[in-house]
């Protein structure tokens, strides 16, 4: 089984897309993350949903989870408001990581290794500089466990 056999159309966003819209897209479509494309239309990075949350969660709560407990419920429920006015570019990690991109001929083991190494729930599949779609962790596991 190859990447081309697990390929699915996948939404993409640009670097200047509003991150609150990205959060809605992730929630509405039950996505683990999104492919971020650069100005040239090729994959720039993968944005996991957890990175969107990291942008919204106050830094002091990330650094010391006990502090999250002292925030009252009304304010805790509204933390996503911190995403207003922010872009995908703001949500990206400071240190670029290996880009989880492969070609349509990659084997399931290659896909699994790439996902594990990059800690990415999806891999962009590119052929001749053109984005074909993505392979998700769910699709990979579903197919492998069914075999």
From TrEMBL:
It holds the Pfam family CBS. InterPro entries: CBS_dom, CBS_dom_sf. SUPFAM superfamilies: CBS-domain pair. Keywords: CBS domain. Residues 95-147 form the CBS domain. Transmembrane segments: none annotated. CDD domains: CBS_pair_bac. This is CBS domain-containing protein.
């Amino acid at each position: 089984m190859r990447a081309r056999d697990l390929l699915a159309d996948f939404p993409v966003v640009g670097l200047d897309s509003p991150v609150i819209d990205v959060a809605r897209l992730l929630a509405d479509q039950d996505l683990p993350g999104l492919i971020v494309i650069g100005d040239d239309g090729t994959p720039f990075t993968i944005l996991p949903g957890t990175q969107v949350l990291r942008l919204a969660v106050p830094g002091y709560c990330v650094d010391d989870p006990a502090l999250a407990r002292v925030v009252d419920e009304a304010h805790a429920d509204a933390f996503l408001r911190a995403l207003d006015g922010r872009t995908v570019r703001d949500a990206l990690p400071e240190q670029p990581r290996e880009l989880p991109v492969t070609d349509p001929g990659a084997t399931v083991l290659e896909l699994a290794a790439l996902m594990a190494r990059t800690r990415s729930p999806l891999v962009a599949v590119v052929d001749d500089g053109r984005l074909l779609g993505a392979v998700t962790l769910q699709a990979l596991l579903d197919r492998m466990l069914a075999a």
